[in-house]
Write a structure and sequence with these properties.
Blueprint lengths: L7 E6 L5 H10 L3 E6 L5 H7 L3 E4 L25 E4 L1 H9 L3 E3 L6 E9 L18 E7 L2 E4 L5 E6 L2 E8 L4 E4 L11 H12 L7 H16 L3 E5 L4 H14 L3 E7 L7 H12 L3 E6 L1 H8 L5 H21 L4 E5 L4 H4 L22 H5 L2 E3 L7 H10 L4 H4 L19 H20 L8 E15 L2 E14 L7 E2 L4 H14 L3 E6 L13
Parallel strand pairs: 1-2, 1-3, 3-4, 4-11, 12-13, 12-15, 13-14, 15-16, 18-20
Antiparallel strand pairs: 5-8, 6-7, 6-9, 9-10, 10-11, 17-18, 18-19
Helix pairs in contact: 5-6, 5-12, 6-12, 8-9, 14-15
The chain binds xanthosine-5'-monophosphate.
Xanthosine-5'-monophosphate (XMP) binds next to loops.
Catalytic activity: XMP + L-glutamine + ATP + H2O = GMP + L-glutamate + AMP + diphosphate + 2 H(+)
GO molecular function, one term: GMP synthase activity
Keywords: ATP-binding, Glutamine amidotransferase, GMP biosynthesis, Ligase, Nucleotide-binding, Purine biosynthesis
């Protein structure tokens, strides 16, 4: 995005687990903001970024520790409003001449209630209105402010934080001990709204504005060159493709790799929608035989993923090579993948599953990247998709993993099992839609189990596969809980699957949360 086009807010990240939520709240208020780790925020950076306001995030360190994270002094001389949150509050106090002390009886974790001070402050307009005279907030701090910096006064207190809300009104510096960005501070959004209004933000970060600017930017970047895009039918690649198509029309060619591990009618739906409905050039790479033959006899989940990932790159490259003059590869990278958050845990985390992606492609093929969604969060991508005219049924789709049904077929993959699985999955999803539950559920699918069980149908004995149904609620797929279907729903669904899908005679429902389970069975 052209940074000069919007007022910008800078979030200095001190390593809080919830820094991204600050950005979410601000984007909801149509404010353009960026998160940058404190180490990168130098004086030069500040000059270049020219924020209209600054927010200091929370963080796990203690300002009482020598060498703890700090912003450059110059941030206080910008003459723009600053809001410090939790650790950010303590940084401000310490930097500006106050005092912070370690724990000792005033640590607060979880729900707390703030009561207003004697003087009103615009930052809290809209608070304390429910008649209780207090406002619920979320605290998570060990250290506390022991003495205010000169110029600051107190505008709200909580039992464990006498300085819960503080401000230097002359300089428009605000500092709060709690986290207004989290769900458990129900009126936190109002606080952010008051802050950005005071800072003079126009609220001009709208999807319509974004769309127009993004289109222009793609045109400037791509010129007359050709762009290729691996279209999966997922929200990110679909929206990226639609946006690039709006910018450069037929200079874009999409490749839809059909690995034979898709859901019932999926390939036809995706290709039909983009080719016929949206007039994109789409190559339907029908490579089912290649993938399925290479997967024959493979039962290890990681080998499945690696095989599919490798073949995917080969296949994509083969089709892309046929597009003369392709110089750019489109990717649906989102902002959460771009944010270089401060990590205090150190060291790479353990790989539970190696998610497949097309990350190795650009270097291998000598392509430049077009990533028009780099500044967006997932729900903003959905909003943009709607702007671009993608149907709601597409935008609201549950996520589907790159390796597809391969990881919903524990053990050895066979064509027979895939066919049975496809049909069972379709009945399950149909049930969910019929009962109006699709949008309440984050992801739902069937898995076919590598066992046959005995049943009785009519007067005969059956010896068929069992399947497991999985439906979870989640925000980001990192943690999840099983969806609490009614027993009636489960009974009706089991009956339908057994009646309508030959090859299955037993249906189970997976009630494992994540952790300890994962969402997929492999
Ligand atoms: P798990 O099973 O790890 O899944 O709890 C979390 C989310 O990631 C998806 N998933 C994958 N997506 N390639 C993908 O593109 C993969 O190999 C893969 N494995 C899991 C899963 O569907 C869920 O949405």
């Amino acid at each position: 995005m052209d940074r000069t086009a919007h007022d910008r807010l800078l979030i200095v990240d001190f390593g809080s687990q919830v820094t991204q939520l600050i950005a979410r709240r601000l984007r909801e208020l149509n404010v353009y903001c960026e998160i940058h780790p404190y180490q990168n925020v130098t004086e030069d950076f500040l000059r270049d970024f020219a924020p209209k306001a600054v927010i200091f995030s929370g963080g796990p360190d203690s300002v009482t520790r020598e060498g703890s994270p700090r912003p450059p002094r110059a941030v206080y001389d910008l003459g723009v409003p600053i809001l410090g949150i939790c650790y950010g509050q303590q940084v401000m106090m310490q930097d500006l001449g106050g005092r912070v002390e370690a724990g000792e009886g005033t640590a607060e974790f979880g729900r707390a209630y703030v009561t207003p001070g004697a003087d009103r402050i615009d930052l809290l307009n809209g608070w304390f209105l429910d008649g209780t005279g207090r406002e619920q907030v979320w605290m998570s701090h060990g250290d506390h402010v022991a003495a205010l910096a000169p110029g600051f006064a107190v505008y709200g207190t909580s039992p464990g934080a006498p300085f819960a809300v503080t401000a230097d009104l002359a300089r428009r510096f605000y500092a709060v001990q709690f986290h207004p960005e989290v769900h458990h501070t129900p009126n936190g959004r109002t606080l952010y709204e008051n802050f950005v209004r005071d800072a003079g933000f126009a609220g001009d970060w709208t999807m319509n504005a974004y769309r127009e600017e993004a289109v222009q930017k793609i045109r400037d970047q791509v010129g007359e060159a050709k762009v290729i895009c691996a279209l999966s039918g997922g929200v990110d690649s679909s929206v990226a493709a639609a946006l690039i198509h709006e910018a450069v029309g037929d200079q874009l060619t999409c490749v839809f790799v059909d690995h034979g591990l898709l859901r019932l009618n999926e390939a036809e739906e995706v290709v039909g929608m983009f080719r016929d409905h949206m007039n994109l050039q789409v190559i339907h790479a029908e490579e089912q035989e290649l993938f399925l033959s290479q997967l024959e006899g493979v039962s290890d989940p990681e080998t499945k993923r690696k095989t599919i990932g490798r073949l995917f790159i080969d296949v994509f490259q083969k089709y892309a090579d046929q597009i003369e003059g392709a110089a750019f590869l489109a990717q649906g990278t989102l902002y959460p993948d771009v944010i270089e958050s401060v990590s205090f845990s150190g060291g790479p985390s353990v790989t539970i599953k190696s998610h497949h992606n097309v990350g190795g492609l650009p270097e291998k093929m000598g392509l430049k990247l077009v990533e028009p969604l780099r500044e967006l969060f997932k729900d903003e991508v959905r909003a943009l998709g709607r702007e671009l005219g993608l149907p709601d049924s597409f935008i609201g789709r549950h996520p589907f993993p790159g390796p597809g049904l391969a990881i919903r077929c524990p053990g050895e993959i066979t064509r027979e099992k895939l066919e049975i699985l496809r049909r069972a999955d379709a009945v399950f999803i149909d049930q969910i839609r019929r009962h109006g539950l699709y949008d309440e559920i984050w992801q739902a699918f069937a898995a076919i189990l590598p066992v046959r069980t005995v049943g009785v149908m009519g007067d005969g004995r059956t010896y068929d596969f069992a399947c497991a149904l999985r439906a979870v609620t989640s925000v980001d797929g990192m943690t999840a809980d099983f969806y609490p279907f009614s027993h009636e729903f489960l009974g009706e669904t089991a009956t339908r699957i057994i009646n309508e899908v030959r090859g299955i005679n037993r249906v189970t429902y997976d009630v494992t949360s994540k952790p300890p389970g994962t969402i997929e069975w492999e």
